[in-house]
Each structure stands twice: as structure tokens, then as C-alpha cells.
Specification:
single chain, 4 strands, Dimeric_a/b-barrel, ABM domain-containing protein
């Protein structure tokens, strides 16, 4: 079974810091409860606290697809979208070295 790892990035529109932090913390708690989730770590850049990086690891592609199908995902994304600078989170899929 191959793990599915990714980095999700977005930048908060100034003035929305508190609301985004609340949304992300609530969403993170839900994702961490998913059986196939191995990591959902939320970071902001020290040099720019409006820039979020979320490191995600799922046990498999199937676990990742289950995550994408979760009913709380679309409402989270809909609430987040107007609060960030990008149209949506930028996803970078990762491969382990070696």
C-alpha cells in the first residue's frame, strides 16, 4: 500500500486571520479522525503568518479518495475560499525519497 502525501498551501486575506484559524482547526480535527489519515499538520510561515502550509498523509490512494468524499469537505472549502487570496488551495503531491 502506497501512502498519499501532499502539501496544501494558501494565503489568508488580511483581516480574516481569526476566522481562517477557526475553520482550519475545526477541519483539522475532523480530518485527523478519518481512519486513513496519518497526518494533518497545519503550519504558518514565520516570515508571513498569513501563509498556511498543511502537510497531509493518507494511508493509501483509497484513503485519500475517502477524505475527498467526506461531507464536511465542501462546506469547509466554500467557507475558506472567499477568505484566501488564491482561487483555491494549491496542492503539491509529494513522493518519498528512496
Amino acid at each position: 500500500m502506497n501512502k498519499k502525501s501532499l502539501l496544501a498551501e494558501f494565503t489568508v486575506r488580511p483581516g480574516n486571520e481569526e476566522r481562517v484559524a477557526e475553520l482550519v482547526q475545526d477541519y483539522a480535527a475532523r480530518v485527523r479522525e478519518e481512519p486513513g489519515n496519518l497526518a494533518f499538520e497545519v503550519y504558518t510561515k514565520k516570515s508571513n503568518p498569513l501563509a498556511y502550509w498543511i502537510f497531509e498523509v493518507y494511508a493509501s490512494e483509497a484513503a485519500f479518495q475517502t477524505h475527498l468524499a467526506a461531507p464536511y469537505g465542501p462546506p469547509f472549502n466554500a467557507a475558506l475560499q472567499p477568505l484566501i487570496q488564491e482561487k483555491e488551495s494549491l496542492l503539491t503531491f509529494l513522493s518519498p525519497l528512496g
